[in-house]
Amino acid sequence: MITESEAQEMHEAIGATIESGDLEGLARAREIASIVARDVAAEKEEATPHREEEYRVVWEIDLTAPSPREAAEAAQAIQLRPNHATVFMVNGESIDLDEIEAEEED
After folding, report:
1. What are the residue ranges spanned by the domains of the chain?
2. Cβ contact 55:49 at 8 Å
3. 55 and 93 in contact (C-beta within 8 Å)?
4. CA 88 to CA 59: how far, in whole Å?
5. What is the pLDDT of residue 64?
6. Among 22, 44, 88, 95, which one is least packed by beta carbons within 10 Å?
7. 0.90 exceeded by the pTM?
């Protein structure tokens, strides 16, 4: 992370470059300032803990079975099969994991 004295030094150097009319130097100073700003933002994001939130996740399926327990067991068996239970409602929004994976592969 850039120190306060380094920031002050850069500020003074940019000011001197502006006063001298050195456009090439000014362009380089702006590039450096942009890199520094991006680095500082990245360091802040790394230092900021990601706050977890609570979500209601719902998976529904209609099944025919002899009893509620057997319907639950059948649903669980489907969920445990890879690539079968991939669409969920999360806080009222439909999330299709297969669709997301396909977009990420592109």
Report:
1. 4-47, 57-105
2. no
3. no
4. 5
5. 95
6. 44
7. no
